[in-house]
């Protein structure tokens, strides 16, 4: 059984996850594009792992898009995505919220028919290890 820790950008919210991380999806749907402001969301799922808030639970809020199962929990202070439980049996963890190394690799891309127009040939553009001068 594995144990992972994570936090939001401002550090007010910290959490621990104990258990197996079972799948890792990169979702390109338009809902995920909107709530991340990016090309896709990178979420890890588990039906068995347990989430425990260590600090800042009062700084967490959630939003569910009406008429859908699309849900996002985030820090009210900095806006960082945080884990949530879509249902009683499914933990969803934004991969970028984890502070520990994970062994699970992305399982699949989802909703690729909704990919952003500009999300093509990204491996062909310039890449920098830090902010270019």
From TrEMBL:
UniProt entry keywords in alphabetical sequence: Lyase, Metal-binding, Zinc
Signal peptide bounds: none
One Pfam family cited in the UniProt record for this chain: GFA
GO MF assignments: carbon-sulfur lyase activity; metal ion binding
Record-linked InterPro entries: CENP-V/GFA, Mss4-like_sf
SUPFAM superfamilies: Mss4-like
PROSITE patterns assigned to the protein according to its UniProt record, in alphabetical order: CENP_V_GFA
Annotated CENP-V/GFA domain residues: 4-119
Family membership noted in the UniProt record: Belongs to the Gfa family.
PANTHER family attached to this UniProt entry: CENP-V_GFA DOMAIN-CONTAINING PROTEIN-RELATED (PTHR33337:SF40), GFA DOMAIN-CONTAINING PROTEIN (PTHR33337)
Name listed for the protein in its UniProt record: CENP-V/GFA domain-containing protein
